Amino acid sequence: MAITDINQRKKLLAQDNVYLPHLVVIDKIIEETPSIRTLHFNFKDGKLRKEFTFESGQFAELSIFGIGEATFCISSSPTRNGHLECTINRVGVVTNAMHRLSIGTEIGFRGPYGNSFPFELMRGKNLVFVGGGIGLAPLRSLIWNVLDNRDKYENIDIIYGARSPVDLCFKYDLDIWNQDKTINMITTVDKGDKNWMGREGFVPAVLEQIAPSAKKAIAVVCGPPIMIRLTFPVLEKLGFVPGQMITTLEKRMKCGIGKCGRCNIGNLYVCRDGPVFTYAQIRNFISDEY
Ligand code: FES
């Protein structure tokens, strides 16, 4: 599969009106950190519950009626169906409202939108996952997908960090990955607290120390823009070429379907051309715009 093929469109959920959300019901809420929570939900409509499919890396529009909608990656893996998960950082009006929702509430769901991680490119390779903060959300969908098909991949390194121990997301998954002997799992925090016995250090610096080989490898990087920007040069230093480095961008999305123009970066629309890109596609403008 050529690198450029990662822009293949995946089929959208069949809808007469792409602006019309489907109803989903929240069935579980996990408080990940003081400002991040994960909603578990499922479609109200039984047919959709059975037929809905998506791929790791794709995103959706969630809406609270009377308040508004916003885009979120789907943080659960398609290999673990039964429900969907989106992980929400409390930063604005809609996300604050989502932090007030409770189990049983009905919200709107449009999607899935965007492209997905290039599994054909990753198959048979060594995989290096680099995540920061809530950036683990899209990465987590991919990681579980890969782990559920473990025989198709070689070595797996996961390097994940957050500002402090309390800011680590998906601690229940980190525990499982830590115990998995087929994974090299490294967790780090910028600054520990009095109970933190683990590693300290910024994700790009820790990546440089771990120094995974670039041979037959693909690196997938998801996190805050500053972390993404500082991680690519480290990967280059380790011998990765731009086509071996993949990331997701989530900037300023609104409509999710290439209509509003809000999400353009360089000559790309994040919603229409991504959100998954290789570094080869974005390296010319990432330092200025992202
Ligand atoms: S979100 Fe509207 S064009 Fe991309």
Q: Could you give the distance between the termini?
A: 27 Å
- Strand tally: 15
Ligand types: FE2/S2 (inorganic) cluster
Q: DSSP helix count?
A: 10
Structural class: alpha/beta
Strand order of the largest sheet: 10-9-8-7-11-12-15
The main β sheet shows up as: 7 strands, mixed
Q: What portion of the residues fall into strands of 2 or more residues?
A: 25-35%
Q: What is the residue-mean pLDDT, rounded to a whole number?
A: 90
How would you spell out the order of helices and strands?
Answer: EEHEEEHEHEHEHEEHEHEEEHEHH
Low-pLDDT residue spans = 1-14
Shape: globular
Give the proportion of residues in helices: 10-25%
What does this protein structure show overall?
The protein has 290 residues and is α/β, with parallel strands linked by helices. The protein has ten helices and 15 strands. The protein has helices at 46-51, 93-98, 119-122, 136-147, 171-179, 203-210, 225-237, 270-273, 279-282, 286-289, and strands spanning 22-33, 36-43, 59-64, 68-73, 84-89, 106-113, 126-132, 156-162, 183-189, 199-200, 217-222, 245-248, 264-265, 268-269, 276-278. A seven-stranded mixed beta sheet has the order 10-9-8-7-11-12-15, with helices on both faces. Strands 4-3-6-1-2-5 form a six-stranded antiparallel beta sheet. A two-stranded antiparallel sheet has the order 13-14. The structure holds FE2/S2 (inorganic) cluster (FES).
